Amino acid sequence: MNDRDNLRSISATIAADAARLSEALDAHMRNSFQPESRKALRKFQPAEVAELTGISMSNLRTRHQDGDFPEVETDARGRRLYSAEEIYQIRQVMAKTGRNGETYLPGRREGDALQVISIVNFKGGSSKTTTAIHLSQRYALRGYRVLAVDMDPQASLTTMFGYRPEIEFAESGTIYDALRYDDPQPMRDVVRKTYFHNLDLAPAGLMLSEYETETAYALQHKIDPPFTQRLAILLDEVQADYDLVIIDCPPQLGFTTMTALLASTGLLITVMPSMLDVASMAQFLDMAGETVRTLEEATGPIDWSFLKFLITRFEPTDVPQSQMAGFLRSILLDQILTTPVLKSTAISDAAMTQQTIYELAPSQVVRKTLDRVLESVNGVADEFEKTIQAAWGREVD
Ligand SMILES: Nc1ncnc2c1ncn2[C@@H]1O[C@H](COP(=O)(O)OP(=O)(O)O)[C@@H](O)[C@H]1O
Ligand SMILES: [Mg+2]
User: Fold this and answer.
1) Which helix (H) or strand (E) is 245 found in, with range?
2) Domain identity same for 295 and 331
3) What's CA 258's distance to the chain center, in Å?
């Protein structure tokens, strides 16, 4: 066989492989995908409710005996089990009757602006989606009304909510339909409730990748409103329903990411503590800075209330990583969250079945492993919550 034949046979093999794979995947999806079998959220134990709300376990019991709280399901051993919705109802009772009532509903008060937080970095695999979903869920459980926006055409965040974007949103139903220049849909038609109380989703799908070329075209032909305003206008339509919007960005600095950044009130940049990742982040910041400067010349100053950095997938026993983390702290000072997200098999294993560490039933994981990662992720969320509260002019201890 000469080289040419050889090449042809390799390309024929690849084509045949691709055809076989996509056929098999198709069949697999048709079999395993049942639209009616949606995800459901597990129930929470009293100790978890106490941790989430700050109500002590004994107070929780007393208030139940007094009939102040809604009656909830009990397990075989008579222990109470709470749905996320019931936890929220308890918050509402406490807000009316508890001491320091307002702390039980920590979201916006009159005059407070919606907080829109973009999770960014152009490095793939730097934990953007993982951070977006965990923060969204944690804040929903903490009593905030959260909208998660998936701005990545790869739609990993949407998948984490139990959707199959390649089937369910192949034609329509994503944030693209609201963002597109030709016959855009209202934001309300795109946003959907999820199985997680107080957490809604604007999903993504592959169609969203069209937004890049369409924006380039729209700029040339001066189609309004420009990308710099499109998402902000959409969020305005639904802002009354939420306290926080958390946007998962794609791993490039294109129009899609810029659209998210320009609708944001604050940014959270995830970084893994390795030389290559930090170098890549520096490049991202450099390019983002340049782009923002150019845009500011055209549209006036962009003012974010905060720009924070978060170390992710941190392994404390890895010496070079610890050195890199120290180096980042020495340069970024208070811009970097002091708590990192630890690298943990609980996070990656849970993700394999589209779950987070909050969805895992405590019995599904080794207790010590779960406790360790919960402490880390909760620590990050609690620390970042102070930044959010500070943006509303409130100090939390
Ligand atoms: N702290 C962590 N510990 C272990 N695995 C993680 C952690 N954070 C993310 N991962 C895993 O790394 C992969 C990439 O993370 P992801 O959040 O999708 O990154 P990005 O959105 O930046 O591309 C996923 O498989 C995810 O489950
Ligand atoms: Mg991602």
Assistant:
1) strand 244-248
2) yes
3) 17
For residues 132 and 248, is the Cβ–Cβ distance under 8 A?
A: yes
Judgement on whether residues 62 and 93 belong to the same structural domain of the protein: yes
In a domain, 27, yes or no: no
Domains identified in the chain, total number: 2
Q: Which amino acid is at 396?
A: V
Q: Over the stretch 274-313, which tens digit does the pLDDT of each residue have?
A: 999 999 888 888 988 898 888 888 878 888 999 999 999 9
Distance 157 CA to ligand 2 centre (A): 7
Please tell me whether residues 268 and 350 are part of one structural domain. Answer: yes
Which of 64, 80, 104 lies at the terminal end of a domain, its last residue? 104
Ligand 1 and 347: CB distance under 6 A: yes
The residue whose C-alpha atom lies closest to atom 14 belonging to ligand 1 is 125
Using the structure block, give the residue that is written with the tokens 């959707």. Answer: 163
> What residues make up the domain containing 81?
46-104
User: How many other CB atoms are found less than 10 A from the CB of residue 11?
Assistant: 10
Nearest to 147 by CA among 156, 136, 160, 138: 136
Task: Quote the CA–CA distance of 235 and 187 in Å, as a whole number.
Answer: 7
Ligand 1 atom with minimal separation from the 124 CA: 23
Query: How far is residue 385's CA from residue 268's CA, in Å, rounded to a whole number?
Result: 12
Do residues 305 and 191 share a domain? yes
Q: In terms of C-beta density within 10 A (0-12 exposed, 13-18 middle, 19 or more buried), how is residue 388 classed?
A: buried
User: 3-state DSSP call for residue 368?
Assistant: helix
What's the CA-to-centroid distance between 4 and ligand 1, angstroms? 42
275: domain CATH number is 3.40.50.300
Residue bearing the CA closest to ligand 1, atom 13: 125
pLDDT digits (tens, 9 = 90+) for 132-178: 999 999 999 999 999 999 999 999 999 999 998 988 998 899 999 99
What is the C-alpha separation between 108 and 110, in angstroms, rounded? 7
Per-residue pLDDT at 22: 76
Q: Are residues 231 and 97 in the same domain?
A: no
Same domain, 252 and 373: yes
Residue-wise pLDDT tens digits, 221-232: 999 999 999 999
> Is 376 a pocket residue for ligand 1 (Cβ < 6 Å)?
no
Q: Is the CB of 125 under 6 A from ligand 1?
A: yes
Find residue 244's DSSP bridge partners. 115, 146
In a shared domain, residues 177 and 257: yes
- Considering the domain architecture, whether residues 302 and 164 belong to the same structural domain is answered as yes
